[in-house]
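Internal tracking record. Fields below are filled automatically when a chain is submitted to the structure queue. Please do not edit lines marked as system-generated. If the sequence contains nonstandard residues, flag them in the REMARKS field before resubmitting.
Queue: standard
Priority: normal
Entity type: single polypeptide chain
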Amino acid sequence: MEAENLQVEKMRHSLSHVMAAAVRELYPTTTFGIGPAIENGFYYDIDFGESKVSDADLPKIEKKMRGIIARGCEMRAREVSRDEALAWAKENKQVYKEELISELPEGETITFYDLVDPKNGEVLFADLCKGSHVENLKEIGAWKLDRIAGAYWRGDEKREMLTRLYGLAFATQEELEAYLEQQEEAKKRDHRKLGKELDLFCFSDLVGSGLPLFTPRGTILRDMLNELAQGYRVRCGYRKVCIPHIATVDLYKTSGHYQKFPELLKFISQESGDELALKPVNCPHHSQIFASAPRSYKELPVKYLETTMVYRDERKGELGGLSRVRAITQDDSHVFCTEDQVEGVFGELIESAKDLYAKVGMKLTLRLSFRDDGDGYIGDAEMWEKAQTAIERMAKKFEMEYFVGVGEAAMYGPKMDFMAVDALGREWQLATVQLDYAMPTRFGLEYTDADGGKKTPIMIHCALLGAIERFMSIFIEHTAGWFPLWCAPEQVRVLTVNDKAEAYVKEVEKALRGVVLDEPIKNNQLRFEIDRTDDSLGKKIKRATAMKIPVVLIVGEKDAEAREVSVRTRDGEEKVGLDELVGWLVARS
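SYSTEM-GENERATED OUTPUT FOLLOWS
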């Protein structure tokens, strides 16, 4: 499998060079940025100068690429000095390549790859590149160009805006077609489209980018998901706390987040002159609740939970629907415990995550997120080794399938990141449990041990949903907007055939008002509406279907006579007696 993956990677990387060669032939004055292989394909960032290029131009670029591939061209590596590479970039007016080359160390050997026609030795395209590539383009499998987008040079919005050409590439035509089908389905499920159609959330230019506004229906969905997630922790003895949304910058300097978030949203109080910031995280605040009173080992573990917003100053171009926002709601929790209690706390949270994601219909795998050799972490090497060993031991104990992601750790400690697979087979990092030896030390947190001595607690961070906005974006697409009965904003809609059965409709209404669903959330009062408009039954059904109401009850004169209702769901239609209706609904929650 590894060899197959490497071959696909080489194929995708080679295709980015072929695309660049085709573009240069069609648009000779272009300058090139970078063109890597990526998941599912490849791209190249290109400056087209005065030329205007759109998706409509992709077919002719693709045709030119297929012609190059048909010639059986080869990818040939050659080494040049830094000076030779710079001379090449200047001679060919490749300013972006020149910038990259100039940053390389003096004396370093640099690799170029030439795209060569073996029949005549013609070099179709030469590019600064580390490789690796297929030797002959005939090794390339199934591919097609996908779309065009804008991309700032080196991801810096203060730099030039380049045109990014995306392509798709797979080992076989079957894999390519399966991916294209998945993409078509993903478009239908796009949470931004469904969010508008189902009246869940909106945005306002006046409020600002990345700041979603949730409608009554969307707020119900948020609340239901949050109650599910926090309910697990309430049952495990977590207690609610409440913190402000701002703090002095000194709090984040102590925690280390000031260095982590240089874009911290700071402001100066006009009244006091205090330097304050909108909170990017909640853990420093929660640490101060723990620190507010003397603690004994007998109290531990101390478990806090809170659903609250944090704020991040994301780049405008990276914001999109609910997937990436500036105001982020977290179903957050923090535990302060002894080393002996870590395994028990982790066990509760792992079991909670497994059960929660089973309820929302997503399979879980686990990524153990460890540190790399970088310097963006706090705490010493011994602490990190101890924490990482403990986390891996717990993954094995709870029989979780896992892999290790080096460089994915939080700045203060390693973590378990739960990777959820949605209905389209896409993998998302959502729930997280993090082990933290560093922050309690930085804040001087302590408790009195059994021997009377002072000890530093260990801190465990957990969010089962992660960012609720992001979870909602994934959940909306996972369900295609057909939410399970327990969390649907509108669970039942009653459609009247006409006003001749109004007395019976009121009996149905009375029965529905008595329905309380207790799974998976306790005391979940049934949410229903009655469509008494003068529209035809066909229009009423169409309207309810468009809003993806899980249960539709049709009530007419014949239903009144039979003391029943016609129940429509995605699975079909059936008759249910009025006396059995409550039990029928409860059984499906």
